[in-house]
Write a structure and sequence with these properties.
The protein is of the alpha/beta class. Helices cover 41% and strands 16% of the residues.
Length: 370
């Protein structure tokens, strides 16, 4: 016969408090002093208390079917130069779409707040959110600046970042796995028979993801013969960290002469990059894809087109950020976490005519020998 399960009432009786106090303590509710929460939680652990997962499931189920009169709001906080400029960048628009859909599915309303609005400041926004009872924040589409630091009264909020900025405070964050994405692309092209793999990346974009692009590239290069390793073309050579590349990325292209010099020096068989970076430069050089060189896009927008590459799952990033935030709120976890975590979302490879696979490579090699 199994032992009797320790209940909240048992803990309350031994602690000399009301069962509601125990319930609040076990949920880390900020209404209780931290010392009270720690004392009751320690007592519960000593008594062998284990939450009933079936009861929690029932509570969650009831919460899902009972109509709420006041739908709780989550804040989606951006720090772009314009209020809606981030929507013009596919990744950031899809972050929001994924977050909004998941928030709705979990019974929340997602509301956008812009840090650079007229008369707005970090202090004022914090006050607005607190006064409205909004304690869950998604921080997305923020300026990529050195020393970026967002200062709220974090004890009042639970927050999750999308991507790496602001760097401070160190909160839980969700991001595309850039290191995996470049490694996946390199694994695909080398498995297809390509040997001289060229990688082109904007310096600002590499900085924006804490250099995970170059880290993944260098890691994968270690599995290649020394003679086949090509130095990455990181452009421009000198770049002040500003917002231009971040908010006008569609206009970013390599500087033609340095790119041509790098290309002629290393003679890559395949280029891995963002199409906007290199395709105009290749056209000016009179080179055609895939006749003269294969191409793989690390920022693939269309999966039904002729371009091979990796589709970054931006909507999944947004959805996971809300899932993690909802879990934090459910357990009343506020403030800056003692041990922040990063959740990586992997990319998905898609074949395309821009990067012919083995049979086509063999055909091309035969043509070159004639």
């Amino acid at each position: 016969m199994s032992e009797k399960r320790v209940t909240l009432s048992d803990i309350a009786k031994k602690a000399g408090v009301h069962v509601t106090t125990v319930s609040l303590a076990m949920r880390n509710h900020p209404r209780l002093p931290e010392s009270t929460r720690q004392r009751i939680q320690a007592l519960a652990q000593e008594m062998g208390y284990v939450p009933d997962p079936l009861l929690r499931a029932l509570v969650a189920y009831r919460g899902g079917i009972i109509e709420r009169r006041n739908i709780p709001t989550l804040a989606y906080v951006t720090n772009w130069s314009t209020q809606w400029g981030w929507k013009k960048v596919a990744a950031h628009a899809e972050f929001f779409t994924g977050a909004q859909a998941k928030a709705s599915a979990l019974g929340y309303k997602l509301e956008h707040f812009w840090l650079k609005g007229e008369g707005m400041s970090q202090e004022r926004l914090g006050q607005i959110l607190y006064s409205r009872g909004i304690n869950g924040l998604i921080l997305a589409s923020h300026s990529r600046e050195m020393g970026d630091d967002l200062q709220f009264k974090w004890k009042n909020f639970s927050a999750v970042k999308i991507d790496y900025f602001p760097h401070q405070p160190a909160l839980h964050n969700v991001t595309n796995n850039q290191s995996h994405i470049i490694r996946l692309a390199m694994q695909k092209v080398t498995a297809a028979g390509y040997r001289r793999v060229g990688f082109v990346m904007h310096r600002g974009w590499d900085h924006a993801v804490d250099h995970n692009w170059t880290a993944g590239f260098l890691c994968e290069q270690q599995h290649m013969p020394q003679k086949d390793r090509i130095a990455a073309h990181i452009f421009p050579e000198l770049h002040p960290v500003d917002r231009w590349f971040h908010e006008h990325n569609a206009l970013v292209q390599v500087d033609q002469k340095p790119f041509e010099k790098w290309f002629e020096q290393h003679q890559p068989e395949v280029l891995i990059a963002k199409g906007a970076y290199v395709l105009p430069a290749l056209e000016k050089m009179g080179l055609k894809v895939p006749r003269d060189i294969a191409f793989v896009d690390l920022f693939l927008d269309r999966i039904d087109g002729p371009v091979a590459g990796v589709r970054q799952n931006h909507e999944t990033v947004g959805a996971l950020a809300v899932e993690i935030l909802a879990g934090q709120l459910q357990h009343n976890k506020y403030g800056v976490p003692q041990i922040p975590t990063t959740t990586y979302v992997e990319g998905t490879w898609h074949d395309g005519a821009s990067c012919p696979m083995p049979a086509a490579i063999a055909a091309r090699a035969g043509l070159r020998k004639r």
